[in-house]
Amino acid sequence: MLNAVQWISRVACMLFILFISMFAFDVFDQGAGFWRTTGALLLHLLPSFVMTTVLVISWKRPMIGSIFFLILAISYIAWTSHGKTYLIIAVPLLVISALFLLSHWLDKSAKR
Predict the structure, then answer these.
(1) pLDDT tens for each residue of 56-81
(2) Which residue in 87, 51, 85, 86 sits closest to 68, CA to CA?
(3) What are phi and psi of 24, to 5 degrees?
(4) How far is it, in rounded angstroms, from Cα 62 to Cα 2?
(5) Is the distance from CB of 47 to CB of 84 less than 8 angstroms?
(6) Of 10, 19, 87, 88, which one has the greatest count of Cβ atoms within 10 A?
(7) Is the pLDDT reported for residue 3 higher than 80?
(8) How far apart are CA 29 and CA 47, in angstroms?
(9) Of 102, 84, 100, nearest to 13 (Cα)?
(10) 97 with 65: CB under 8 angstroms?
(11) How far apart are CA 11 and CA 29, in angstroms?
(12) pTM of the prediction?
Protein backbone atom coordinates (compact mmCIF):
# COMPACT_ATOMS: atom_id res chain seq x y z
CA MET A 1 0.00 0.00 0.00
CA LEU A 2 2.89 2.35 0.80
CA ASN A 3 4.36 2.10 -2.69
CA ALA A 4 0.99 2.76 -4.30
CA VAL A 5 0.36 5.87 -2.20
CA GLN A 6 3.89 7.13 -2.81
CA TRP A 7 3.57 6.80 -6.56
CA ILE A 8 0.03 8.15 -6.69
CA SER A 9 1.11 11.29 -4.80
CA ARG A 10 4.11 11.81 -7.07
CA VAL A 11 2.24 11.19 -10.31
CA ALA A 12 -0.66 13.39 -9.20
CA CYS A 13 1.83 16.15 -8.45
CA MET A 14 3.48 15.74 -11.86
CA LEU A 15 0.11 15.84 -13.63
CA PHE A 16 -0.88 18.97 -11.70
CA ILE A 17 2.42 20.65 -12.63
CA LEU A 18 1.78 19.82 -16.29
CA PHE A 19 -1.77 21.17 -15.99
CA ILE A 20 -0.59 24.44 -14.46
CA SER A 21 2.17 24.71 -17.07
CA MET A 22 -0.39 24.66 -19.88
CA PHE A 23 -1.60 28.10 -18.83
CA ALA A 24 1.85 29.56 -19.56
CA PHE A 25 1.50 28.97 -23.28
CA ASP A 26 -0.93 31.84 -23.71
CA VAL A 27 2.12 34.15 -23.96
CA PHE A 28 2.58 33.03 -27.56
CA ASP A 29 -0.70 34.71 -28.54
CA GLN A 30 0.53 38.15 -27.48
CA GLY A 31 2.59 38.74 -30.60
CA ALA A 32 5.54 40.18 -28.67
CA GLY A 33 9.14 39.77 -29.75
CA PHE A 34 11.33 36.77 -29.01
CA TRP A 35 12.92 38.09 -25.80
CA ARG A 36 9.72 39.51 -24.38
CA THR A 37 7.89 36.26 -25.11
CA THR A 38 10.71 34.21 -23.59
CA GLY A 39 10.68 36.36 -20.45
CA ALA A 40 6.91 36.12 -20.15
CA LEU A 41 7.04 32.35 -20.63
CA LEU A 42 9.67 31.94 -17.90
CA LEU A 43 7.65 34.16 -15.58
CA HIS A 44 4.47 32.18 -16.22
CA LEU A 45 6.33 28.90 -15.67
CA LEU A 46 7.78 30.03 -12.33
CA PRO A 47 5.07 28.28 -10.25
CA SER A 48 5.77 25.07 -12.16
CA PHE A 49 9.50 25.38 -11.47
CA VAL A 50 8.83 25.92 -7.76
CA MET A 51 6.43 22.96 -7.56
CA THR A 52 8.91 20.77 -9.44
CA THR A 53 11.62 21.70 -6.94
CA VAL A 54 9.30 20.86 -4.05
CA LEU A 55 8.39 17.56 -5.71
CA VAL A 56 12.08 16.63 -5.96
CA ILE A 57 12.56 17.47 -2.27
CA SER A 58 9.34 15.66 -1.33
CA TRP A 59 10.46 12.51 -3.08
CA LYS A 60 12.43 11.56 0.04
CA ARG A 61 10.58 13.81 2.54
CA PRO A 62 6.85 13.61 1.83
CA MET A 63 5.95 15.73 4.87
CA ILE A 64 7.57 18.74 3.16
CA GLY A 65 5.36 18.17 0.13
CA SER A 66 2.29 17.84 2.31
CA ILE A 67 2.98 21.11 4.12
CA PHE A 68 3.93 23.00 0.95
CA PHE A 69 0.90 21.96 -1.08
CA LEU A 70 -1.43 22.64 1.86
CA ILE A 71 0.02 26.15 2.23
CA LEU A 72 -0.26 26.64 -1.51
CA ALA A 73 -3.93 25.59 -1.52
CA ILE A 74 -4.80 27.83 1.43
CA SER A 75 -2.91 30.73 -0.14
CA TYR A 76 -4.76 30.27 -3.41
CA ILE A 77 -8.12 30.24 -1.65
CA ALA A 78 -7.21 33.37 0.32
CA TRP A 79 -5.83 35.14 -2.75
CA THR A 80 -8.60 34.55 -5.26
CA SER A 81 -12.33 35.02 -5.02
CA HIS A 82 -13.43 32.88 -7.97
CA GLY A 83 -15.55 30.00 -6.72
CA LYS A 84 -15.16 27.68 -9.69
CA THR A 85 -11.38 27.95 -9.76
CA TYR A 86 -11.27 26.57 -6.23
CA LEU A 87 -12.38 23.27 -7.69
CA ILE A 88 -9.83 23.40 -10.49
CA ILE A 89 -6.78 24.60 -8.54
CA ALA A 90 -7.24 24.34 -4.77
CA VAL A 91 -8.94 20.95 -4.53
CA PRO A 92 -6.20 19.08 -6.44
CA LEU A 93 -3.61 20.82 -4.26
CA LEU A 94 -5.44 19.65 -1.13
CA VAL A 95 -5.65 16.10 -2.49
CA ILE A 96 -1.93 16.10 -3.32
CA SER A 97 -1.17 17.42 0.16
CA ALA A 98 -3.27 14.66 1.73
CA LEU A 99 -1.57 12.01 -0.42
CA PHE A 100 1.89 13.19 0.64
CA LEU A 101 0.76 13.21 4.28
CA LEU A 102 -0.62 9.68 3.96
CA SER A 103 2.62 8.61 2.31
CA HIS A 104 4.56 10.09 5.23
CA TRP A 105 2.39 8.32 7.81
CA LEU A 106 2.57 4.97 6.03
CA ASP A 107 6.33 5.27 5.65
CA LYS A 108 6.71 6.16 9.31
CA SER A 109 4.57 3.23 10.45
CA ALA A 110 6.41 0.83 8.12
CA LYS A 111 9.75 1.78 9.68
CA ARG A 112 8.57 0.95 13.21
Answers:
(1) 999 999 999 999 999 999 998 888 87
(2) 51
(3) -75, -20
(4) 12
(5) no
(6) 10
(7) yes
(8) 20
(9) 100
(10) yes
(11) 30
(12) 0.88
